Amino acid sequence: VMLSEAIEYLAANHGRRFIDGTVGAGGHSRLLLERLPDCEVLGIDRDSEALQAATANLAQFGQRFQARQGRFAQMQEYAAGLGWQSVDGVLLDLGVSSPQIDAPERGFSFRFDGPLDMRMDRTEPRTAADLLNTLDESELVEILFRYGEERKARSIAREIVRRRSERPWANTAELAELLNRVVGRAHQHGLPPATRTFQALRIAVNQELEELQAGLQAALALTCPGARIVVISFHSLEDRMVKHFFRDEAASCICPPGLPECRCGKVQTLRVLTGKPLQATEEELALNRRSGCAKLRAAERL
User: Which of 34, 35, 155, 280 could bridge 291 with an S-S bond, Cβ 3.0-4.6 Å?
Assistant: First the structure.
């Protein structure tokens, strides 16, 4: 998603070392490696299948592309393993990928029947089914409301708990059926009734917001002056977190208004490059409808 826009920001400083923190099949990394013939890219992904695809797709670049399975919040550790003390750019393309969504056995989509899995890294122990079958009602309400911004969180959680007393939750079709009944189409402003709950469960299973916060801090620590941090998000929770992080790090003073002089000692670490987030062009939307939710924000390390 937003390939050219992301690479325009990353490649602007003609750097040599970059991290693609969500490499997927390698689309962004390929364009970066082609654009900057002397650069190296470290690609990170939690999904072993995605990493295998990226490694195969980028084999022609030899040692210029290195792959590591894991969380992008661990980028400093992986970079150190390559002898990199700093990098010239970090890209985070958040959320779930099309191959993950389109694989019924991964359990990310309510459009197919499959196991309630939703793990990006399938070696992790906790699945969506585990959450639905073990959390108490109040914990489910918190997940649905916080991560899905689902206004009917209480009604949904109540029905989830009632239904599991009869038999445990196991597949996506059963959950989607319950959500169709409890939520109803009128409530969701055009969204399918299952959208917010599936999003909330996926975020909880993969601890995506905690990972994003840690990843932004890691990117800030690893980038050198002039480096770019580019983040593509797909829902308001992610975008809000990125916006606030960039804004806070771009501030040079956080003293209360009215003080005669600055006493906070705050040091500005970023310069925001995107006043408002970039969104997909009409041409890209015509080719990929999933890009309609994408928002790109970029900042430069000072």
Answer: 280
